[in-house]
Amino acid sequence: MRDNVLTRRSFIRTSIAAGAGLAAIPAIGAPLYVPSSVLKGENAPSNRINIGVIGTGRIALGHDMPGVMKYESAHIIAVCDLDARRVEEARKQVIAFRKEKFGKADEVRTYENYEELLANPEIDAVIICTPDHWHAKIAIEAVRAGKDVYLEKPTSLTIAEGRLMSNAVNSTGRIFQLGTQQRSSEQFRYACELVRNGRIGTLREVEIRLPGDPAGGNASPMPVPDGFNYEKWLGSTPYVPYTEDRVHPKEGYGRPGWLRCEQFGAGMITGWGNHHFDIAQWAMGTEYTGPVEISGSAEFPREGLWDVHGDYHTEMLYANGVKVFGITETSEKPNGILFTGDDGWIFVCRGDYKATASDPGSFEGSPLVASDPRILKAGIKDSEIHLTVSEDHHLNWLNAIRTRRQPVSPAEVGHRSCSVCLLQHIAMKLGRKLYWDPTLERFINDDEANALLSRPERYPYQIKRGL
Questions:
Q1: What pLDDT shows up at residue 42?
Q2: Taking the CB of residue 443, how many other CB atoms lie within 10 A of it?
């Protein structure tokens, strides 16, 4: 078990050391693109980052690709998806975007299989926007292939997968950014700094409010659409018949059904929870650990295709004595995070920000309020705790690739934040209090709970252990 333990110090030390490696030697011949690792200098090709996008659905086209493409030095040169229609639309979007913004555009290669994209030596970095059940596996293979990674949250389908992913990033020294973009929003960072610096006194409780998912979905089998590799899309999860409500819309980019199927994810507890619980851990200074006690309950659908949790309630206790509650949002308790201390409270949320047009509605109002306005006006002194400043999550990742310094949402932090969500999901399923060892990442004297830290993986899509 000791090999699974990763401290913040060893994580940073290993990553810095790996960043000092030798530049790659270009292959014989004339590649279409020059990898950023080849040459150095302010105006050299090394300032250009060649990017491949794996998974070209709603989040990729609406959020991550535009977020990266607006920077002239970031060149998306390849796109990959198991749906031929989607990958072609992504290719066209890249070309049209760059022509409109910069007046010119290179050709963009298309791939069905991500393995072929990762084998392309011209690609420096990848953005992974697949369904959740593919996240950890592709990220692991990407860093082993020498690519830097931007991974959409949640980090993994299981806690065991997340540990393998973080270890792989750490051992290879690649730059990794998790798509928890709330860390790049000023109100969230400032709220965390206020809590860390004692503006509300000793922190006692954190309440995190999330939406639920509806029941429903048509489970009737349908013919697999032409140009869609459904068998591979299922990946490591069990084979089940195709139906549109299980996958994604055949036309358009509305909210996909797989988000509401436990086969592919845990629902809102990881889908949005990975954002909010990440901020809670940032504020508490527990980014490299986790709770010691977890309990919870939830309503799960009894019929229909969609089976992720609806209304839920969880409670966690941390070793520092702070209690963290997860609840379903209501009109009286809107989506966001409430920090309560001995001397007051702070509430922070996204306000009217949405990552994509089809995101669930968020709180419309001030994104940062407190029990006393003077708490927010106090500011942070030079001598106090200051957290990493990032004003743009994608730019923070691009800058980290150039400098080889850790971005604002590195792999181990992302794994720990996702783990908190998955621990609550396990507690919802078992319906009793669980005791967790955050160092060993195991439940204490609970074989039934420990069996839920991983899932069986369907051949041939298992994560390959070792380098």
A1: 37
A2: 21
Alpha helices in 80-176 (DSSP H): 84-102, 114-118, 135-144, 159-172
pTM recorded for the entire structure: 0.89
Gap between the Cα atoms of 47 and 404, Å rounded: 13
Model confidence over 81-102: pLDDT tens digits? 999 999 999 999 999 999 999 9
> How far does CA 97 lie from the centroid of its chain?
25
Q: What is the number of other CB atoms lying within 10 angstroms of the CB of residue 18?
A: 16
* DSSP secondary structure of 182-219: GGGSHHHHHHHHHHHTTTTSSEEEEEEEE-----B---
Q: Is the peptide bond before 456 cis (omega within 30 degrees of 0)?
A: no
- Nearest Cα neighbor of 149 from 279, 51, 280, 47 is 51
Number of other CB atoms surrounding residue 359 within 10 Å: 17
Q: Are 283 and 195 in contact (CB under 8 A)?
A: yes
Nearest to 107 by CA among 119, 116, 95, 117: 95
How far, in Å, are 37, 68, 204, 225 from residue 34 at the CA level?
8, 18, 53, 37
Q: Which two tokens stand for residue 91?
A: 């290719």
Looking at residue 462, the DSSP 8-state letter turns out to be P
Q: b or e along 152-189 (b: 16 or more beta carbons within 10 Å of the residue's beta carbon)?
A: bbbbbbbbbbbbbbbbbbbebbbbbbbbbbbbbbebbb
Rg, Å, the chain Cα set: 22
